[in-house]
Every structure is written in structure tokens, then in C-alpha cells.
């Protein structure tokens, strides 16, 4: 009974339910309260579902329809243009206002902006990608790499109070602080993002069964024939079953 009471309180906290109510129910009903909590969906906001359809696969489908004579060359060109012009799927999450207070070293939060902006531009140029700057969001520097001919998924990078944030459709990585404002991107994050955009890296996302919000996201690069994690965001799954989704840039 004691274990059920503790579990009820912990699960209620994670799933954004009334801790007091479910703790009392845990005392009165024991495992029944735990079972009910596991069946009730969380009230916390979830990220958009991960789309496993890629830009390249949609274009291939159009090509197959054209080869079968179901689409003319003009209709194929129009369909391809619509796919390439599809809107961004990743949404910009809320953040605290970027108060640019002085740090202990004498730097201001604004000191990080030039190097970070230059690092984002360099990343786009090295992989021949277009990026879009966002000025209407509560971050200091934000850019999005939209879906395009050399990128099969959208990814957003942002700077907030000296930390770099990364997210996309159904995944996110914790903020990473480069430390020195002249660095731009930390070496491991730069390596991981470069590999991801270049097609050799990948994102591994794990979501609990019947839950769209990922509890684990890892950015991996190949080293010596094995996958190595360079950056990750982890949590604890509520349910014992989960699914694993791999995201790669297959448009390169």
C-alpha cells in the first residue's frame, strides 16, 4: 500500500494531475489508483507527432505516378513544386524573455549573438541549405532550416541566454551552453548537427506507448563503425512499452 501511494503521487506529478487527490486514492485503493493513472492521458502539452514521410519519398511517389502515365509532365512539375513549398512542420515553443543581464565574467547575453549567428550561417553554407531567420519569437537568435531539396525535415536552432536549443517535428534537445561567447556552437553539437544535415548522422527518438511526447531524444554520429551519441535529452517513460523512431536526412 505504501508503494502504491508513492507511485500514485509521482505519476500524478509527471502527468500533471492533482497530487493530493491521487495520493489519497493511492492510500485508499492501492494498485487500482496506479492503474487508473497509467490509463489517463497526461495533461501536459505534447509535441506534434513525428512525420515519417520524407520529402524525397513524396517526390518519388509523384515520379512513379508519372511513369505509370497517371500524371503528365506539367502535373508532375506542379506537384513537385507544392511538395517543395510545403509549410514548416516544426513549431516554435514558448520561452522566457531574453533578459540580457551581465554574467559573472562581464559578458552580456547579447555577446553570444554574433558568433552564434555566424555559426548558423556557416552550417547552412557548408551543407548548401537555405535558412529563415525568425524575429517574432521570444529568443535572441532563431533560424529555421525548412524542408528543401537537400533537407527532408525541418529543424530550428535558437539562442537564449547563452544556450543553444534545437528542435523539430516531434523532438527537442536540451539547451547547450557554449561557455565562451566567441565559440558559436559547442564542438560536439556542431559535429552532430553537421552529420545530421549532411546525411551521415541521425536522431533517435523514443516515445511511450500511446504518448506522442518523446521521453528520449539522442543526436548520433557514426564513429568507427558504431553510432555514438553526442547530445541527448532524456526522461523516464511512464509506461513500460515504447516505440523507437529514427530520423535521418535522406534528401542528400
Textual characterization of the structure:
This protein has 252 residues and is an alpha+beta fold. The chain has two domains: 2-39, no CATH class; 55-247, no CATH class. Helices cover 33% and strands 23% of the residues. The strands form two sheets. It has a five-stranded antiparallel β-sheet, with helices on one face. α1 runs antiparallel to α2, α1 (2-14) runs parallel beside α3 (31-39) and α2 (19-29) packs across α3 (31-39). The longest helix has 14 residues, at 113-126. Mean pLDDT is 75; it is low at 44-54 and 87-103.
In summary, what is this structure?
With 252 residues, the protein is of the alpha+beta class.
Set out the fold topology.
Layout: H1 2-14, H2 19-29, H3 31-39, H4 55-67, H5 73-84, H6 113-126, E1 132-133, E2 141-145, E3 155-160, E4 163-168, E5 171-176, H7 187-198, E6 202-208, E7 214-223, E8 226-234, E9 242-247
Helix pairs in contact: 1-2, 1-3, 2-3, 4-5
What is the rounded distance between the termini?
56 Å
Instruction: Give the low-confidence spans.
Output: 44-54, 87-103
Strand order of the largest sheet: 1-2-3-4-5
Q: How confident is the prediction overall: mean pLDDT?
A: 75
Strand content: 15-25%
Helix percent band: 25-40%
Q: What structural category arises from helix and sheet content? A: alpha+beta
Number of domains: 2
Order of helices and strands: HHHHHHEEEEEHEEEE
Using only C-alpha atoms, the radius of gyration works out to: 22 Å
What is the general shape? Answer: globular
